Amino acid sequence: MRKLPQDFAISSQKGLLPIHESAIKHVTGQAIYIDDMPEWPNELHVATGLSTEAHADIVSINLDKVRAYPGVVDVIVQADIPGDPDVSPY
């Protein structure tokens, strides 16, 4: 987290604690959320498919119906991602 000016801190028994940089916008209603932003013309949306089984191994999957669904532009699976597909923050 980046350093904030001293006036962006609150006092506590442990001293001054930093306030999140967008906290003031959140509590005053000035924060802009993604749902508040207008969509661009021809904007694409991403939808993810999730497993219904915990810890299951996918042996095969037929995505023909998904690809044929009206409005679907592309279907991407892990094998389509070059390199390490790990997108976690770690």
From TrEMBL:
Gene3D superfamilies: Aldehyde oxidase/xanthine dehydrogenase, a/b hammerhead. It comes from the Bacteria. Transmembrane segments: none annotated. It comes from Marinomonas rhodophyticola. SMART domains: Ald_Xan_dh_C (SM01008). InterPro entries: Ald_Oxase/Xan_DH_a/b, Ald_Oxase/Xan_DH_a/b_sf, Ald_Oxase/xanthine_DH-like. Residues 28-89 form the Aldehyde oxidase/xanthine dehydrogenase a/b hammerhead domain. This is Aldehyde oxidase/xanthine dehydrogenase a/b hammerhead domain-containing protein.
